[in-house]
Amino acid sequence: MPGPKSAILRRIAPQLVILAIALLLNVLIFPDFFHIDFRNGRLFGNLIDVLNRGAPVALLCIGMTLVIATRGIDLSVGTVMAVAGAVAASMVVEGHGWGTALLAALLAGGMCGLWNGVLVAVLRIQPIVATLVLMVAGRGIAQLITEGRILTFMNEGLIHLGAGTVLGMPTPILIWVTLGAVAITLVRRTALGMLIEAIGINERSSRLAGINSRVLLICVYLVSGLCAALAGVIVAADIKGADANNAGLWLELDAILAVVIGGNSLLGGRFSILASLLGAMIIQSINSVILLSGLPPEFNLVIKALLILAILVIQSPRIGYLLYMLRAAGPQPQPRPGTADTLPKRKKEAAR
Amino acid sequence: MTLKATLLASVLVLSPGALLAADMTIGFSQIGSESGWRAAETTVTRQEAESRGIELKFADAQQKQENQIKAIRGFIAQGVDAILLAPVVATGWDEVLEEAKDAEIPVVLLDRTVDAPEDLYLTAVTSDLVHEGRVAGEWLAEEMAGEDCRIVELQGTTGSSPAIDRKKGFEEGIAGQDNLEIVRSQTGDFTRAQGKVVMESFLKAEGGDTICALYAHNDDMAVGAIQAIKEAGLKPGEDIKIVAIDAVPDAHLAIANGEMNATIELTPNMAGPALDALEAYLANGTEPAKWIQTESKLYTAADDNQAVYEEKKNLGY
């Protein structure tokens, strides 16, 4: 009997392989990629950069995974980042402490999430439309708060959240890893994850089975808003200023992409936050390839598109089936434990 | 807004005294609030109009051409003396400019030009983006005075005209200097965040101590890059020379603090030269040149940047 550990490993195996390939590409371009040294009181190296720069998308994809698991989508996370960053910056500029500013930003993000949740769960508006409202309007709200300029601040505590280090490790890394671990524990050690999956698979029957889907749906969007707020504060703290026009711009798409690369279905149901986080790191590794390659910037989007296309094609069910058939048709490996039991096992997993 | 305009119009009609008091009324169709610079341009335009006793009718188009066309038609209907237009796109202006011409209202383009026959507008007041880049390149060439220098470049948004022209200008500025070499060039999308991220990768890919200068297509990216340089344990402004374009308040502050070396001003005062030309034209029909180039002033540590910062910080950047 394979334990839960090996089941998790099997679930994230494709993401691990892709991440390894992406990192290998980095090493091919830049042999010193894995070199990390200690400079100016902080760990300094490309690998640290990948973990650090991937923080906003990693945070976003925690909430996004849960939303997508309920068969929803949250397009507003990028603008919620801008709003939260603007709120935090304006609070410290007015002389409040960083703690108050962080709380205010989280409150703003929470309210945005609540708004989305109510539109989706109570008014029954389709998630893509419901969250589009805030995606468009939110940036305007952020611009109102910052009065259209980059609101700079010098509050050391707030800056520490984005640009500081704890024992040499950049704070954003610690934040996303901790939050990711908490989220995974919470959804997998309790029934919460299963309930969310139930809503995504069939909301009506899950409600008939006694799940309070309305409250859960609102909570899921709330969590997404909170994650986005935290990401927004980190991004603002990183540049010591809230840039309402650009903060979080198009990051909702990266977050959705991370969830998809993580092998989660946009049709809801089974999800893995861990795989989504790996997806976020894969995206950041690809960004790193582009930056280190030294090619003219005209190639950036083409390279990114090609690499992501390759990843998605490899993950597509058709190709998976083809590989499976090839393996089945090829020279028979002597005992065939792999192929023969994969299917029943998968089914068992799906039933869990 | 319409109600307000109608009320205003009726007040003007009912009191001919008020009409005579403001000797010139000008309509200004602004793109919207897309950046701090544009906000500053709006502020300066208002100030310029006020100091000349001109009544300025302001219309914010919220980044939409149809709003600008509507605003211009409104200005024509109100019978303004002249129109200032900061066009959001280059094409599609012929018809409305024709209408303004038929109404004998001169139109002056601010900071961007349009693809329309030249006789449809009085003049265009813009900066020369290539020239800005050239000033930056020439400053660096002079600063290094023959010493070897490996330069990294933070480009603007790929494919945008400021990015293309400022790159071209800088390359012209350092042309013929064999000691200067651009070793890495990547886009930072004109934002602080991306400027910082890309600079981080430059510092690792090239090794921080081998980079001698940074050229950024705008100040925001340079400000982001300064933070990346500091985090890598280097001194911006000393270990790595930094030159950028725009001269936003934060760049003046960085130069005052010795963290940046030079910035080239993209002046928000496009209205000054435009109103000069308009006043001359309306007074005695002096036709200005079809293109008025604004000054691209170079600011270095030799200037009193703290004072310029104090002056600029309230313009809305």
UniProtKB/TrEMBL annotation, chain A:
InterPro entries assigned to the protein according to its UniProt record, in alphabetical order: ABC_transp_permease
Superkingdom: Bacteria
Cellular component terms (Gene Ontology): plasma membrane
Main location, first listed in the record: membrane
MF GO annotations: transmembrane transporter activity
Annotated stretches, region: Disordered: 332-352
Membrane topology annotation: Multi-pass membrane protein
Transmembrane segment boundaries: 12-30, 50-68, 75-93, 99-121, 128-146, 158-187, 215-237, 249-267, 274-295, 301-326
Keywords: Cell membrane, Membrane, Transmembrane, Transmembrane helix
Location of this chain's protein in the cell: Cell membrane
PANTHER family referenced in this protein's UniProt entry, alphabetically: ABC TRANSPORTER PERMEASE PROTEIN YPHD-RELATED-RELATED, GALACTOFURANOSE TRANSPORTER PERMEASE PROTEIN YTFT
Protein name: Monosaccharide ABC transporter membrane protein, CUT2 family
UniProtKB/TrEMBL annotation, chain B:
GO molecular function: carbohydrate binding
Alphabetical list of Pfam families matching this protein: Peripla_BP_4
Subcellular location: Cell envelope
SUPFAM superfamilies the record matches: Periplasmic binding protein-like I (SSF53822)
Keywords: Signal
All residue ranges annotated as the Periplasmic binding protein domain in the record: 26-274
Signal peptide (UniProt feature, chain positions): 1-21
CC annotations in GO: cell envelope
Presence of keyword Protein biosynthesis: no
Keyword Membrane: no
Principal subcellular localisation of the protein: other
Gene3D superfamilies per UniProt: 3.40.50.2300
NCBIfam families the record matches: YtfQ_transport (NF041827)
Protein family membership: Belongs to the bacterial solute-binding protein 2 family.
Protein name, UniProt field: Monosaccharide ABC transporter substrate-binding protein, CUT2 family
Native source species: Salipiger marinus
